[in-house]
């Protein structure tokens, strides 16, 4: 993936060489890890502990390297790994949901983040995390990771038109939701300044 310093051909060669060469496997992981990390972190949301993100990223590469014989070369290695990451995120979310269902205590207050204390970038990350799963995936893949609509469609297993529609809807949702958050973020310092006077 050229965005991370290695093109598709180089990544394909590393993936094929990884069958017999640990150094190639490590180089493959290093080349894709930043994109996979951003994608997984975005899908899991900003309140997800870093160790959970790391666990899902690690599982992604374990599945990719143990299942590398299933890569047929019809998709770029980066797209193929991001599709695996998407499935790992879904599996992680299912496991967490099952664990929470077994527990009697749920901490509903964890979802209530005071908007006035957020910086704009954290507020935007929070808004992205509130998008529906399909829209969030499409938005993060195309806008944050820079994949083309065709590549994002491959990762999500849907037609390209569906990705375009999801991105457009995600943008509209974010524009609509961002204005009140931006006002609250700007107003909080003003309120604090007025209290000091």
TrEMBL record:
Pfam families: Sigma70_r2, Sigma70_r4_2
SUPFAM superfamilies: Sigma2 domain of RNA polymerase sigma factors, Sigma3 and sigma4 domains of RNA polymerase sigma factors
Every RNA polymerase sigma factor 70 region 4 type domain range: 123-174
Domain RNA polymerase sigma-70 region: 28-98
Keywords: Sigma factor, Transcription, Transcription regulation
NCBIfam families (alphabetical): sigma70-ECF
PANTHER family, A to Z: ECF RNA POLYMERASE SIGMA FACTOR SIGC (PTHR43133:SF61), RNA POLYMERASE ECF-TYPE SIGMA FACTO (PTHR43133)
Recorded family membership: Belongs to the sigma-70 factor family. ECF subfamily.
Name used for this protein in its record: Sigma-70 family RNA polymerase sigma factor
Naturally occurring in which organism (per UniProt): Motilibacter deserti
